[in-house]
Amino acid sequence: MAKPDSALLTRKRQTPLRWETLLVIVLVLSLGLGRVLSPVFLTGANLSNVLADLTEIALMALPMTLIIVAAEIDLSVASVLGASSALMGVLWHMGLPMPAVIVLVLLFGVLAGLLNGLVIVRLNLPSLAVTIGTLALFRGLAYVLLGDQAVADFPPPYTAFGMDTLGASFIPLPFVIVIVCAVLFTVLLQATAFGRSLYAIGANPTAAAFSGIEVARIRLTTFVLSGAMSALAGIVYTLRFTSARGDNGEGFELSVIAAVLFGGVSIFGGRGSMIGVLLSLLIIGVLKNALTLDDVSSETLTIVTGALLLASVLIPNLVARWRAMRDRRFLAKTAAKT
Which residues cross the membrane (predicted)? Predict the structure, then answer.
């Protein structure tokens, strides 16, 4: 009996649209929905709000993409943001100059990520369990530092950066940081040996180790990057709202993970792209803004985020099962004909 034509099977496998293409379609539909819901949606001022509200989520989603590609997860990102904001307020209240405050806060983020990474890598513990613990630890630290108080007397030049736009455009100045970081992280993941190693680790860490990849060092690096970027998000958030509080960024981890998974990154690791995550961030930002303009409650927005998170896990798995079933039927029909 002749074997089925592998070329035919390959062509059938290539027919579905790429996930990124589907995300572009969803983004266009989301923009159309926003325009229908509110006449001010496509104005420069509102688009500036969309990008500004995405800033901190995007900064944390970039390293989260690397972590999930490597089949790990970091649930402590929003708590590191909150602790960084609280620390920023305490240091400024102590009288330190703002440049020194920013450097020390970023150093705190690096140390927070290092703590996560060392516990996970050196003790070989699951990242889910470890970062649930540090989620509570860093949020508790934020409240210890500031309690229920707020620090809001930051210098005007820095708070102006948090609220101004780039020249005459609608792009917020903090979002420029996102653009620069997005380019750097995209190149890191898609065009370097480090990125290729992440995909190999996510697909099969044992095989990656046998091929000479320094699995432990690379995993540790991703958590350090996550801590540093979360601290940067805390700095930006504090300057945008001119307020350092212990509860800043509470609940942001759900939006970060939803953006990464909805962007096509597999929760099991080894698959995904930074372009998909960036498109996903824009979709989530557009939908949230459009629904907010339509007076939808914050509770409903949380439901939408949760639904996107659930869909991002279910849809790829359902599509994979459908493709496997389709291929089996195709092979069976081809074998019967020959």
Answer: 21-38, 100-121, 128-146, 166-189, 220-239, 251-268, 275-291, 303-320
CATH number of the CATH domain containing 165: 1.10.3470
DSSP state of 41: T
Residue range 278-302, pLDDT digits in tens: 999 999 999 999 988 888 887 788 8
Number of domains in the chain: 1
Q: How far apart are CA 105 and CA 256, in angstroms?
A: 21
Residues of the domain holding 314: 6-337
Query: Considering the entire predicted model, what is its pTM?
Result: 0.88
> Taking a C-beta distance cutoff of 8 angstroms, is the pair 174, 239 a contact?
yes
End-to-end CA distance of the chain: 7
Does 152 fall in a domain?
yes
Q: What is the mean pLDDT of residues 233-245?
A: 94
306 in a domain, yes or no? yes
Rounded CA gap, 4 and 65, in Å? 38
Of residues 257, 260, 236, 259, the one with CA closest to residue 248: 236
Q: Is residue 71 part of a domain?
A: yes
Q: What are phi and psi of 151, to 5 degrees?
A: -110, 125
Cα–Cα distance measured from residue 326 to residue 12, given in angstroms and rounded to the nearest whole number: 9
Residue 1 lies in a domain: no
Q: What are the pLDDT digits (tens) for 45-75?
A: 999 999 999 999 999 999 999 999 999 999 9
Q: Taking 70 as the threshold, does the pLDDT of residue 338 lie above it?
A: no
The CA distance from 77 to 112, in Å, is 10
Residue where the block lists tokens 């750097």:
184
Q: Tell me the torsion sign for CA atoms 95, 146, 59, 239.
A: negative
Q: Give the DSSP letter string of 254-320.
A: HHHHHHHHHTT--TTSS---HHHHHHHHHHHHHHHHHHHHTT--HHHHHHHHHHHHHHHHHHHHHHH
Share of residues in the chain with pLDDT > 90 (%): 66
